[in-house]
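Minutes, structural biology subgroup

Action item carried over from last meeting: produce the structure token record for Probable membrane transporter protein (Rothia endophytica). EB confirmed the sequence was re-checked against the source entry. Recorded below for completeness.
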Amino acid sequence: MLGLEGLDLLTLSLLLLAAFAAGWVDAVVGGGGMIQLPALLMVPGLTPVQALATNKVGSVFGTLTSAATYLRRVPVDRRTALPTALLAFGASVMGALLATILPVVLIKPLIILALLGVLVYTLLKPQLGELSRPNHTGGRLLLTSLGIGAVIGFYDGVLGPGTGSFLMIAMISLLGYSFLQATAHAKIINAATNLGAIVLFSLGGHTVWWLGLALGVANMAGGYLGARTAIARGNGFIRVMMLCVVSALILKLSYDLLTGA
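Output recorded by EB:
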């Protein structure tokens, strides 16, 4: 049905539900790909590369929606966020180009260790991200932010799991942002990294556009609701959600590593 063998109305409905949930989670703390991408990988007739490309299309709509929602309600330093997003876009394209030759099986353990570090660091610092305490100003703030965008943007292009969490913890610990501010800035940068990957995948003809756009509508709805929830509930809620999502990512990646997925 609809150009993909095995994609019936029930399967499509479940995909849209997964996309909505992914948009909500991604808007609050990042990690929505943990829900949407595995759902796409189970669609008969869809190759892994097509799933990755289509996932990015669906995700970017939700990310842009949540970013716009945050921009209207949370103070964002656009002079820092926009150049960082632009650099992250380029870094993501470079990372995606490199993705085809890197031994991913060797990198997964490093991702798990990094996520464990994020989890332990957040648990040991209960006051982390409660208030905004800028660590830098002016040029130093911009350079630090650009460094974060370059490194994590490149990582998102190569692999991607945990990008939102890595962005948030870097901005909280290195820039002194609160959880809410870090989330708002992370959505802007994450939207740019998604767009970078979409450009590369599109040039390669890997994207199933109609499916990606359908998922994008559901992702937008989830992203809007998630951003509104995070803004209403505040820093404490975002911190708890980040701990939950990072823990789930660690478990999933560990399972993939053990099973050879």
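Discussion: Residues 48-73 form the longest helix (26 residues).
Next step: EB to file the record with the rest of the batch.
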